[in-house]
Specification:
The protein contains 3 helices and 6 strands; from the N terminus they run H-H-E-H-E-E-E-E-E. The protein is of the alpha+beta class. Strands 1-6-5-4-3-2 form a 6-stranded mixed β-sheet, with helices on one face. Keywords: Hydrolase, Nuclease, Signal.
Length: about 130
């Protein structure tokens, strides 16, 4: 049986549960509240290709892939500079990079998908 890439990744819900169990607090910021969720199985097929390339460490089809994502939109949880990196999810028929991306987080190794060039993000849920 082949498991999807990053099947052991810790999702946001696990981080919340962990904080609650050890007595920490979890505060929702407007930006964090804007992040949705998407099942791994609901991603477009090209996203699987991108996640596989990330797991392999490249090579990537675009020079911008693997660069630091600045989170200027403030939609993803606030982190220090260099925490997030972005990768292109190819769009069939597009002559450019298109709008679809995977943005990864380093510390918790989370993966976010955006189909609208950073206007919204969905945390990839590998458990559904």
């Amino acid at each position: 049986m082949r498991f999807p890439p990053r099947i052991t990744r810790i999702g946001a819900s696990a981080a919340v549960l962990s904080a609650l169990l050890i007595g920490g607090t979890v505060t929702a910021t407007p930006a964090a509240a804007a992040v949705g969720s998407i099942c791994y199985s609901d991603l477009p097929s090209q996203a699987y290709d991108t996640l596989e390339l990330i797991e392999q460490g490249g090579p990537y089809p675009y020079d911008q892939d693997g660069t630091v994502f600045q989170n200027r939109e403030g939609i993803l949880p606030s982190q220090s500079s260099g925490y997030y990196h972005e990768y292109t999810v190819k769009t069939p028929g597009s002559s450019t990079r298109g709008a679809r991306r995977i943005v990864t987080g380093e510390k918790n190794q989370e993966d976010y998908y955006t189909a609208d060039h950073y206007e919204s993000f969905d945390l990839v849920n590998y458990g559904c």
